[in-house]
Amino acid sequence: MSLARVALLAMLQGLTEFLPVSSTAHLYLASRLFGWRGEGLDLDIMLHLGTLLAAVVYFGRDWVEIFAHAFGPTHSGLLWLLAAATIPVGVAGLAFHRQAERRWRNPFVIGGMLLAVALLMGFAETRGTKMRPLAALGFPDAVAIGIGQALAVVPGTSRSGITIAAGLLRDLDRESAARFSFLLSTPAIAAAAGKALYDRRQSGRPPALPTGVFLAGVAVSAITGFAVLSWFLEYLRHGSLWPLVYYRTIFGIIVSALAFIRRPA
Q1: SS (H, E, C) 193-258
Q2: φ, ψ of residue 132 in degrees (nearest 5)
Q3: Domain positions in the chain
Q4: Which residues partner with 132 through β-bridges?
Q5: pLDDT at 70 (0 to 100)
Q6: If you average pLDDT over residues 159-175, what whole number do you get?
Q7: What is the pTM of this model?
């Protein structure tokens, strides 16, 4: 795989991992349209490490404070709420990872989930009061958002899309819903990268990507992801999810239409 192709896929990952538009759907469609055959585990590791690095750098100070308060005299519960919210996706990942990586990774499922979550995001944008700050988050809220994240094992769902929608339905304001979503995504992305690294080691195959190309892809994904995180959280202080709802709807229709057009007779 050439450096230009790796850079393009890494940029696409960085642009779509944190926006509620499904990075899996975009990477899948790009590979299908251009006839690219991915480099399997090496590509997965590269893309996940890049966006993980973006999240860790952006929320580094937040994580230090979360851990310090969790074990300090104030005993802030955010760490434990994040831990509780992470359990459902861990269970879902263990139970359905084979289906998610194979049977469900097709344009019919991806297109359907793009449309379904677009409807959910629109409903959440309309229904939620957007009055509660992150400090008001409680255990029932964390569990509800965590269950939403568990559904993100289905390709086309978008981890950020469904967790932000769940946060809005718990009446969090947009920025707080997104901030909790992105903090929650950090262990999930780390787990995905760790699993890919483990599978890569178990395969025993030589690296499919040269070291320089691999590191360049990580850097592009990280820089793009960091920029998107910064912009999106700032945007949500005043902007709504509706532009992204419309985008998901149009994209979902395109993916579904392509699936039917290319379906063998």
Answers
A1: HHHHHHHHHHHCCCCCCCHHHHHHHHHHHHHHHHHHHHHHHHHCCCCCCHHHHHHHHHHHHHHHHH
A2: -95, 130
A3: 3-261
A4: 172
A5: 80
A6: 96
A7: 0.91
